[in-house]
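User: Predict the structure for this protein chain, please.
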Amino acid sequence: MKAVVQRVKNSHVAVADKIVSRIGQGLMVLLGVSEDDTEKDADFLVEKIIHLRIFEDDKGKLNISLMDVKGELLVVSQFTLLGDCRKGRRPSYIKAAAPEKANSLYEHFIRRAKELGVETKSGVFQAMMEVSLINQGPVTLIIDTKDKNTKEK
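Assistant: Here is the predicted structure, written as C-alpha cells:
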C-alpha cells in the first residue's frame, strides 16, 4: 500500500461539481492499493499515519500527531500511485490491485481509522474526483508498506 500524506488546513473532494466530503485541520491521504496488499498492510498504515508526529507543538516543533490535535482524516483512493514509470512514457499499472480488492482494502482502511477514534471522510471509489486542499507547512510524506520497519508493530 502506498500513501501520500499531506497536512492540511482544510480539504474537500468534489464529484460532478458537488462536494462529497470536507475536512478542517488534519491529514489528506491519497491511498494506492497493490495486488499483494492485505488488511494487515492497511492496519499498519492507518496506525502509522494517525500517529505520525507532523503537527507543531507549542514550541513550533513537529512533535504531535493527528490524534493529539484531534484532527480529521480525508482518504481518497488513487490507483495511479502504483504507476510504474521506469519504462517508456506510459505508466504501467500492472501492480495495482483489481477494483474489487482495492475497494475492499480502501474501505477497511477507512473503517479502521474510525474505529481508532479519528473523524474520517472519504472520496468516492472509482469516481472522477476533484481534490482541493490547503497544505500546511507544506508537509507532505510518502509511505509505502513495502518499506516498513519489521521491528514496528
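The mean pLDDT is 95.
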